[in-house]
């Protein structure tokens, strides 16, 4: 009995179990937890970006107008990127090409999402008058947090895990799962790469919030730091993953993408630091500024004056009260 209890305790405390289910059925509607994680991440990113952009002086919820273009394009290009880099899954011998459309089964590539999302965000910023780099900086912490939340979808799907390990936090994978590597013992544990990325991204959110406030990173420099931080971690996690992937020059495609992410981040950081030495005056491009209702901008300053109430004269300032207002 004691041995049984010890074995149970060892199984509970020296490994991470994977969920037994990845979806729930509500009548005829099937809801996948993977999709719920992605949707939750999007909502969190929108809320955080709205808060940060509004504090800079943008119109409340203008982020929705930008997200209407950025989010759909991000999802589409994320799926396309995944399918292209895992071509054999969908168009190889014995594969079902229609499964390329089964996005609920997993397979959304972050770097594909960044490409499509950047195009959509640029179009949305042109539409609303928001500076693209102001939006990108406001988005960066929320985007990283959204990616951390989205990784739990991989946990529910029991996918994208790492090499076998005997570490106490090894991840349990159902041996019947199609992603379980053939030839390994059924009780083999794997590196929980989803958890590594969750922790790295959550820590990165704190770093970005601190750096944005303390170092006043603007003009896209905070987004550049996001690219460097996320991509540096992704190089490590991607290098220990064992799911099939296209290989170029000995490296997985996503490792190359992560390296490119670091390089692009450094380039943005250097170029924008040289181009812009001062603070952003406004999150809007000149001539597209939003003025809160009931306010006008002073001709001599950048301050807004509330004109919703008539000015009142103080006694002793040499002003008279109109008879009409007595």
UniProtKB/TrEMBL annotation:
Enzyme class: transferase
Membrane topology: Multi-pass membrane protein
Subcellular location as annotated: Cell membrane
GO molecular function: transferase activity
Keyword presence, Membrane: yes
Positions of region (Disordered): 279-326
UniProt-annotated binding residues for a 1,2-diacyl-sn-glycero-3-phospho-(1'-sn-glycerol): 151
Keywords per UniProt: Cell membrane, Membrane, Transferase, Transmembrane, Transmembrane helix
EC numbers on record: 2.5.1.145
Pathway connected to this protein: Protein modification; lipoprotein biosynthesis (diacylglyceryl transfer)
Entry-linked Pfam families: LGT (PF01790)
Annotated transmembrane regions: 31-49, 61-81, 101-125, 132-150, 194-212, 219-237, 249-271
Major localization listed first in the record, in broad terms: membrane
Assigned protein family: Belongs to the Lgt family.
Function of the molecule: Catalyzes the transfer of the diacylglyceryl group from phosphatidylglycerol to the sulfhydryl group of the N-terminal cysteine of a prolipoprotein, the first step in the formation of mature lipoproteins.
Database matches in NCBIfam families: lgt
Entries under HAMAP family matching the protein: Lgt
Protein's recorded name: Phosphatidylglycerol--prolipoprotein diacylglyceryl transferase
């Amino acid at each position: 009995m004691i041995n049984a209890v010890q074995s149970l305790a060892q199984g509970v405390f020296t490994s991470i179990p994977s969920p037994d289910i990845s979806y729930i059925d509500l009548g005829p509607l099937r809801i996948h937890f993977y999709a719920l994680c992605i949707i939750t991440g999007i909502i969190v990113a929108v809320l955080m970006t709205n808060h940060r952009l509004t504090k800079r002086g943008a119109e409340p919820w203008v982020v929705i107008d930008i997200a209407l273009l950025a989010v759909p394009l991000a999802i589409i290009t994320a799926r396309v990127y995944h399918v292209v880099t895992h071509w054999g899954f969908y168009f190889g011998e014995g594969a079902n090409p229609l499964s390329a459309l089964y996005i609920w089964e997993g397979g959304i590539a972050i770097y594909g999402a960044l490409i499509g999302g950047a195009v959509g965000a640029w179009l949305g910023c042109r539409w609303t008058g928001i500076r693209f780099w102001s939006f990108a900086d406001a988005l960066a912490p929320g985007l990283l947090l959204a990616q951390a939340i989205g990784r739990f979808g991989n946990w529910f799907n029991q996918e994208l895990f790492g090499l076998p390990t005997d570490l106490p936090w090894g991840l349990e994978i159902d041996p019947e799962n199609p992603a379980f590597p053939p030839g390994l013992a059924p009780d083999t544990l794997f590196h929980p790469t989803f958890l590594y990325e969750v922790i790295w991204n959550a820590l990165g959110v704190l770093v970005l919030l601190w750096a944005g406030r303390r170092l006043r990173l603007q003009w896209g420099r905070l987004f550049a730091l996001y690219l460097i931080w996320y991509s540096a971690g992704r190089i490590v996690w991607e290098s220990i993953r064992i799911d099939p992937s296209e290989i170029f020059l000995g490296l997985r495609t996503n490792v190359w993408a992560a390296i490119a992410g670091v390089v692009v981040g450094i380039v943005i950081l250097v170029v924008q630091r040289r181009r812009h030495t001062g603070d952003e005056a406004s999150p809007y491009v000149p001539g597209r500024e939003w003025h809160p209702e009931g306010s006008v901008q002073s001709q001599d300053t950048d301050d807004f004056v509330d004109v919703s109430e008539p000015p009142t004269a103080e006694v002793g300032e040499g002003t008279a009260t109109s008879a009409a207002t007595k």
